[in-house]
Amino acid sequence: MKIDHSQPLEYSTEQNRLNILGFWIFLGAEIMLFATLFASYFTLVDRTGDGPAGARIFEITPVLAETFLLLTSSFVIGLGIHAMRLGHKKAMLTFFVITLLLGLGFLGFEITEFITYYHEGATLQTSAFTSVLFTTLGTHGAHVTLGLFWGTFIVLQVKKRGLTPETANKSFIFSLYWHFLDIVWIFIFTFIYMKGMT
Amino acid sequence: MGFFTRFLIPNPSPVIYTSMVAIGITILLIVFGLTHFKKWFYLWSGWLTTVDHKRIGIMYLIAALLMLFRGGVDAVMMRAQLAIPDNKLLDSQHYNEIFSTHGVVMILFMAMPYIMALMNFVVPLQIGARDVAFPRLNAISFWLFFMGAMLFNISFVIGGSPDAGWSSYFPLAGNEFSPHVGTNYYMIAIQIAGIGTLMTGINFMTTILKMRAPGMKLMRMPMFTWASLVTSVIIIFAFPVLTVALIMGTMDRLFATKFFAMTDGGMDMLWANLFWVWGHPEVYILILPAFGLFSEIIPTFSRRNLYGYRSMVASMVFISIYSFFVWTHHFFTMGQAAYVNSIFSITTMVIAIPTGIKIFNWLFTMWRGRIRFTVPMLYSIGFIPLFTIGGVTGVMLAMSAADYQYHNTMFLVAHFHNVIIPGVVFAVLGAATYYWPKMFGFMLNERLGKWAFWFLTIGFCLAFFPMYITGLDGQARRIYTYSESTGFGPWNMVTFIGTVLMAISFFLIVYTVYYSIRHAPKDVGDDPWDARSLEWATHNPVPEYNFAIIPQVSSREAFWDAKYKGHELFKGDYEKIHMPNNSGGPFIMSCIFFVFGFALVFSIWFLAIMGLIGIFVCMALRSFEIDHGRYISVEEIKETEAKYGGVNK
Does B647 have pLDDT greater than 70? Predict the structure, then answer.
């Protein structure tokens, strides 16, 4: 394996560069996935049947908390990658663990939010609106959940194997994924919650 | 006992019982054969765990041929039922199931893998690479496709086949009108195969963008590689839409969500829109690689370079973008405003322009060429007039006002078969013949191949041209019988005869393969067709590392110029070659996907959850795995190359 030392560790081998480009392309596909969900959401948003509309069930407090947690986590993982570039393994791991904890906090709020909706009579089966609402939020939430597992695996690997071209590459790609989820959340916050509350 | 009744098929018939027995016997024979000839280890180490793009390509090819048989049997049964008026061969339910599976199998499990077979085999060779960017992912793609296809295919013996058409429109596909599990199979099997296809798209886009041989700029790529790149882009943008649509459909059926329901605000047209936002680009996912293949075959056998290279590329890119803006033409009659229909009418007609440019480019390539009428060339020459007829009827269908007459008639059925068969099927059959020596080291018999071509072409014309006539007369598609007074009888009989000719051509093709294995000479050289691009610059059959030395490209037709203009392709000495390791992971994970899918189809939740956990465990194990691949030493390369008679310089 040829290692190019003029590049940052995560870009230093041919395979690493391929992995990063491949993952960007995968994110392109993910954009299409969420775009389709959003398009469906906009189509079905007013089709509430006998169920509640968004304005009746959305609450600003948990949503703001979720937004705060996820946006902060995206910032923190940026710090983690910065630390990785500088070769500070310990700092990087600390930032990564904080990222994951913030993600876990986000997920906790989201789950309680879902339970609240359920008690207010908005379930997956209530109307086309609630179906698409839960599916869109749930797809994002499932991505975050998967990310928590994935991130944990990467933390364990960096801890055990140190910063190698492989682990650096995985960490960097994970950070791309995490930022992507953050961006999707900004759209969810704006077009589902903000728009839905007015 | 209640648990097992769900596996019963809703409308059993002697045909299905016979198939069950036949499937059982085939499986037993395969197991017995593998054990008797002690081939289990060979199967596992050589094929099930392989990450070699060439072997994966060959497995795609085998799967595609199997599915061609399956889809073909469906077609013959349908046409036999329609051959005479008031026929009682099939009942309506059975007929519904057959036309639904025929469509899905032919598009997603025959045409797609056939294209994937050629992409996998040819593209890395054409760009002078040693494998794709992500070989392990490539194996996952194949096995997910294969398991999806198998899951779909067992539907007719376990639980019942989907019966709501290949487009599976809601509310017909909902629980109310499709109560048995058939449509669950549809939703879940296509989902599994679709994930595999999406990964193939990502893989090939990365490969083509980053792994081309030195000197091969984008505008020096062979046309099939260009087509594969454009196709990969379409896959990446179109398949996620299908993913979402299928998730929604699955949830509507399994969890009673209300996406496409008739109550509580559901919107059935959302399915139709999402389905065709994927479905129309899907048509181009099939046809663009086919165009690419013709663009390889026609120059080779005309002994001229491809006419209008740049306009070929430009028209493909144009088609790929436009393919996302025409989907509404699939349902002009389903209630949009007239101005919406008008817009989609125009965008649809516009697509004929770049396609026409391509047709003329192929004609100009042949113009004053020294044409050799080999089997691949026959398919290409047959393609041009037949496909043009299909294209022209397509423009007729594109006129939204007139479409009220054609919609859902046999005219439409004739149209899309008229583009798919001469377009995609001719391309893959021609290309399989063309690349056969590269894959297996011997040529297919030309004389038998020509017989197959003529049976297929004449059969095709007899089968589909009468449908234009009955369609204009009002014979609807998806109707299992008709009365004698309609006058459709004789035309449908002609169609049936055509279908039989096409079936004969399939068996002729299989026989050609068998005959050629037995009798064809095994030393055809590295370049039996006097071809033009890099895949012919390596040995026959291709060594596992493809090229002992990575070629240096300095023109569009690199190999031709190396042969006749003295360009030097292979400079420098052997170096050790890095290769990926084989892995059982993709196969095992895809098997778990199969179990997971099967459990979902029948709502066996315990098994589904176990399956899901199994899939995640596989992914976690992969994350922790350390695999640096292996090296092929210089001595080993020298030994292999000596066996082939030295590197082509």
Answer: no
Given pLDDT bands bounded at 50, 70 and 90, which one contains residue B627? Answer: confident
Q: Which residue of B has its CA nearest to A166?
A: B626
- ipTM score assigned to the predicted complex: 0.95
Total number of domains in chain B: 1
Closest of B242, B200, B78, B97 to residue B155, by C-alpha? B97
Q: Which domain holds residue B366?
A: 7-583+627-644
* Structural domain containing residue A107: 9-197
Q: Is B20 exposed, middle or buried (0-12, 13-18, 19+ CB in 10 A)?
A: middle
Q: Which of B243, B264, B277 sits opposite A127 (nearest CB)?
A: B264
Q: Each residue of B264-284: pLDDT tens digit?
A: 999 999 999 999 999 999 999
Residue B601: inside a domain: no
Q: Which of B198, B209, B244, B323 to mutate against chain A (most A CBs within 10 Å)?
A: B244
Rounded to the nearest angstrom, the gap between the alpha carbon of residue B645 and the centroid of all alpha carbons in its chain is: 36
Q: What is the pLDDT of residue B147?
A: 96
SS3 category, B339: helix
Binding-site residues on chain A for chain B (CB distance < 8 A): 1, 17-19, 21-22, 25-26, 28-30, 32-33, 36-37, 40, 43-44, 47-51, 124-132, 135, 149-150, 153-154, 156-157, 166, 170
The answer on pLDDT for B448 being more than 70 is yes
Q: Domains in chain A: how many in total?
A: 1
Residues of B in contact with A157 (CB under 8 A): 623-624
3-state secondary structure (DSSP) of residue B94: helix
Report pLDDT for A73: 97
